[in-house]
Amino acid sequence: MPNKNYPGDYDRYLFHQGRHYESYNFLGAHLTQEKGKKGVRFTVWAPNAEEISVIGDFNDWNKSKNPMQKIKDSGIWTTFVEGAENEMYYKYWIRGYRGVIRVKTDPYARRQEKAPKTASQIYEAKDYSWNDKKWLKKRKKSNHLREPISIYEMHLGSWKQDDGELMNYRDIADELVPYINKMGFTHVELMPLTEYPFPGSWGYQTTGYFALTSRYGTPEDFMYFVDQLHQNDIGVIMDWVPSHFCKDDHGLRLFDGSQLYESSDPRRAENIQWDTLNFDFAQNEVWSFLISSANYWVEKFHIDGLRVDAVSNMLYLNYEKEDGQWAANEYGGFENLEAIEFIKELNTEMFERYPGILMVAEESSAWPLVTAPAHEGGLGFNFKWNMGWMNDTLDYMEKDPVYRKWEHNKLTFSSMYSQSENYMLPLSHDEVVHGKKSLVDKMPGDYWRKFANLRLLFSYMYAHPGKKLLFMGAEFGQFIEWNYKQSLDWLLLDYDKHQLTQDFMQELNQVYLKEKALWELDHEDQGFRWIEADDNEQSVISFIRSSENGSQKLIILLNFTPNPRDNYRIGVPGPGNYELILNTDQKVFGGSNYETAARVKAEAKPFHGFDYSISINLPPLAGIYLKYKPAKTDKNKKKKTETEVENNRK
Length: 650
Prior knowledge:
GH13_cat_dom, eight-stranded parallel β-barrel, EC 2.4.1.18, Immunoglobulin-like, six-stranded antiparallel β-sheet, glycogen biosynthesis, carbohydrate metabolism, 25% helix, 24% strand, elongated, 30 strands
């Protein structure tokens, strides 16, 4: 009977072809029994090594005791170690290319020693009894483009702490679930949980692509975390970094003494801006490694999607590089042809295996068809972060209102391309660090105006086409920049402005979830129509959001100055009433409670190209949402009118 943990011919063939997407089943450390003896089968890919031994707790870290054997013509080394047990630590001792000695962690380790220590750990997770079958069934049938998505982005180590100490996945889940349910977010997005050595990288410089970070507990603890969120109808997205990896000696760099995971051409390998190394997508085994990693997180931990970090760095050979620092492709261009094909294969494979998951590109350029299917020439993601909207909007909002009329195009330009991709609107962690200030502190003006601007920003974001993502702390007006070393300032909720801001975000999410017009046609032209895009003198914009077949319509008016606009007239789509469903200036949210109508009746006065219009007071630095209630047709009146017309005709 073949040993399932021993790399057979077919496994090795697929791995070397770049098409083995469950390579974690034979590479790495696997508890097994061979010839009646219990132990662990260790297997590693290191084609240019001259000698490898596995060292660990089971052999006093002695390189002489457990040498590995190289499987002929494969570049794969393997050995069985009798007596090695679950949760023991180990590394690979490698005499590499040209005899250089290296001691490495296992690229396929399921767990690593708690940082700053770096050993791999033999780890076979205990059986976990999942209770999220209902969620997974629902996910499989999801049509995310026509569903509300409101994501709460978070860093687990600094969301909350226990007297300055990191919390366990289980404890975080028990506090997070009621909070997300209260706030109305549909998903959480976790900054990378693949093991990483340097806390200041926030997980974006990885060493363990199959190892859940041990900072917050065990794999079983994280399964509980995901399971609890799923049981409460909350999706879980995880940031994943297939673009580059850190240079730490125990990691992937020069793994067997040669450039194995990175390119041998330093112009392709060196990532100058982050001092990391780019993956070599011309290497088939790198495809197997990375796509297996993506598959592992969704398969083993029921993750609902991956936000793929730094996609631009994968697509462009010259990304953030000067002339002479990069090498062109075979056609003389700047496109990374192998990475493009890798991305297409990644997305195709993941959607085939897991219908209904999210594959989100953090991509900052104008690369076309990022969210088009791979078989139609696209990259195959189903969403892309709208970095253009984010940069323009924050730049606009940081301006003093007196200068905003000269920056008006930054509010309106996104409508030129908002349906060109399936977009997500991010206000992410990157915008509240490194001297950029927190969102509320970016806002100009005194204390009152800062919070009014923040509510206005959020109301604009939620009304604009595209799914939503907000970094933790912004929902209650965290005033200092995010610091990964410490908990959010939850004590701020003792102060009215912060508590009322949190109340507003809760209400905004509820309005968003309830109103189909805000999300059902996010990515179709019929879902958005300008009423007035060009009132830069008053810094006001107005537009219509519509649901499918125009069955529901919302009128959005946004006043970006502290000056109220009394009797502001706009065209509207038809006769009837326009009812106020959200006003960011309400006193219950910390606003000025400037007088505005709760209901406005349309008048037969043509305006803005419409046959009907309304006049309404716009509060200062505020957004208002009006829901259209069409005039009811009086059947008797209609019948009488038809009779009069017929008599007149006679």
